[in-house]
Amino acid sequence: MSDLDLQPSLRECGGRADVSGQPVRELLNPREASLGATVVRRLLPNLGRRMVGAWCFVDHYGPDDIADEPGMQVPPHPHMGLQTVSWLHEGEVLHRDSVGSVQVLRPRQLGLMTSGRAIAHAEQSAVPHPRLLHGAQLWVALPDAHRHTAPAFEHHADLPVVTGPGLTATVILGGLDGAVSPGTTYTPLVGADLALAEGADVRLPVEPDFEYAVLTMSGATEVDGVRLDPGSMLYLGSGRTELPLRALSDSGLLLIGGEPFEEEIIMWWNLIGRTQEEIAEGRAAWMSGDRFGTVHGYDGSPLPAPALPATPLKPRGRTR
């Protein structure tokens, strides 16, 4: 998914200085953004929290009734230095990319795209498409040692599941309670879809060295005693060995977490780099038709890049 903001702000992310070494309960308020006909709630980067582990971008959208609408229509656009994670609760999305992948993504199937040095992709609601569309799009920042890797796309329809009384947890990326996703990762992290039955009261085992956040996709829950309604995210810090969850109704949550990302990065538009020169070169390559390749089969023009800001693009210091 793309950031379609024509005047994207400079985002200096990463580093350990702002990571709590103990449990916290920090409610993150979303802001709405338009992706063509789709309105999303953007939870990361947030005014108060830019990253959770290597997770650096979270959009939540729907549930939307698109029976008489085109649904998701995101034109070809570039990515570099990151992975995209597509996750659906309802509906279908057709993914096309410049390495030749064409894949319809369905609920609770992992669509994982590693941009590495450069890739382009487009996302559309399939034709015909189901009535409802509900999901999340997330990005994972690649560490310096792997951010120039070859671009690739993975589709995993069968993912490991952890169960407990009133809980079904699908492991999207990384590992949870001994279950490990087949998706490729480059830093220690976890992403899990948590389905809770009404009345469930569970304690989910977590890693004390990871920082975590929880997004409510549907229903009403209490996460570590804090009530969350759909579209809200709670940042939890680190230092936990378990996470209390209580469902006030049948609910769906997304758990994201990981070791705090040591490197500081520049995230501008759909590109992640370390210097202004890298971002400028990436933008120029996209506008000239170089490096990112071509998304075949999409009926429409690629998304033009916005102008670079006048503000210098530079990350903050990388010391703790």
UniProtKB/TrEMBL annotation:
It holds the Pfam family Pirin. Residues 301-320 are annotated as: Disordered. Residues 192-291 form the Pirin C-terminal domain. Residues 44-140 form the Pirin N-terminal domain. Transmembrane segments: none annotated. Belongs to the pirin family. This is Pirin family protein. The lineage of its organism: Bacteria, Bacillati, Actinomycetota, Actinomycetes, Kitasatosporales.
